[in-house]
Amino acid sequence: MAFISDMMRVLTRDSIRRAVLVCCVPALVFYLLALLILTQAGFTLVEILRDTAQTTGESSFLGFVSSFGAWLWVAAASVAAFRVVVEGRGATGAHRRLALLLAGFSFFLALDDFFMIHDRFLTEGILIPLYILFLYYLIRRFWPLIARVDGTAFLMAGGFLAMSVIVDAVQEILPISYGASQALEEGFKFLGGAGWLYFCTRVAAHRLVVAPVEEG
Q1: In the predicted structure, residue 79 carries a pLDDT above the cut 90
Q2: Which residues of 12-34 are buried (b: 16+ CB within 10 A; e: fewer)?
Q3: What's the rounded Cα separation, in Å, for the pair 158 and 188?
Q4: Which one, of 124, 163, 155, 127, lies nearest residue 139 by Cα?
Q5: What would the pLDDT profile of 108-142 be if each residue is shown by its tens digit?
Q6: Residue 119 and residue 122: Cα distance in Å, rounded?
Q7: pLDDT value at position 216?
Q8: How far apart are alpha carbons 197 and 62 in whole angstroms?
Q9: Can you give the pTM of this predicted structure?
Q10: CA nearest 97: which of 80, 122, 75, 111?
Q11: Rounded CA separation 196/75 (Å)
């Protein structure tokens, strides 16, 4: 009876309305639009809904490191967006703007990694300079805050990602096999993604005020 009473107290009209509008409706719209657009593009429902490993019959570990790397960008976007949401719409200040930019940039990096935008749609000669300009803007606009939060993490992530780009640019002249150069490039990229997630986490947690837990 106590459990039912707690459920009735939790399931208020406002909480249900908020959950439906903020979570369920956007998720349903995305799901239906994805099905509509991709079926119109010629894909079957089975091809859209099943995992790639199921469709192709290949191992689930095919491209494991690459897939895990994309999760790092998604996680970074999520933790940065969390800080934006926690502070609320009315909040202002450099910290919230930085978190918002980090969330958007990380989400785009996830899309780029997942859909291979830099390989199939836009060349690296376009995207990489844009990435560099964005990071330069962050440094120019937010460096005092970045340094106060964790400048080392920011520089570490940027350094590893820069090394990944450099190795990719010169891999054809490196005195090592293609597989070894790919391992080197992806290794720097993976470390950069991990460093970026760490930095975004530091930004999200910086001076975060946690409400006291109510004891029932």
Answers
A1: yes
A2: eeeeeeeeeeeeeeeeeeeeeee
A3: 10
A4: 155
A5: 999 998 888 877 777 777 888 999 999 999 999 99
A6: 7
A7: 46
A8: 23
A9: 0.86
A10: 80
A11: 10
Contact of 200 with 149, CB cutoff 8 Å? no
Per the CB < 8 A criterion, the answer to whether 24 and 18 are in contact is no
Distance linking the first and last C-alpha atoms of the chain: 16
From the list 185, 202, 208, the residue with the least C-alpha distance to 80 is 202
Q: What angle do CA 150, 169, 115 make, to 5 degrees?
A: 75
- Note the helical H segments in 88-123: 94-115, 117-120
Cα 109 from chain centroid (whole Å): 7
Q: Which of 105-119, 130-144, 170-184, 202-216 has the lowest mean pLDDT?
A: 202-216
Decide: 204 and 79 in contact? Cβ < 8 Å: yes
Residue in this structure with the two tokens 């290949």, named with its chain if needed: 58
